[in-house]
Specification:
Helix content: under 10%
Order of helices and strands: EEEEEEEEEEE
Strand content: over 45%
Largest sheet: 7 strands, mixed
Number of helices: 0
Shape: globular
Structural class: mainly beta
Amino acid sequence: QVQLVESGGGTVQTGGSLRLSCIVSGSIFEIDAMSWHRQAPGKQRELVASITGIGRTSYGESVKGRFTISRDNAKKTVYLQMNSLKSEDTGVYYCNRPFPTPAWGQGTQVTVSL
């Protein structure tokens, strides 16, 4: 059974940085595409960033140039480095493995204060 465990959330001031981590177990991580999503209060969950098994990345428009997704296959971990954080980045951040069977972590709260 695939399990995803996120960590690294917290409260930071506008302009600050955080790095989220997601440790994956129970899958052949090296070939898995992985992604980060977030859900702000009262809003739908949205895709933030994704990375393929060979390291190809893509980003949502609102985070381009500020966030970086990366992976360490030896540690079965995917990261999300978030810089220049804004109040609108506040939300619960979820790690996701979309294929072959979708799997989600429990989420980690990120709060960006003014």
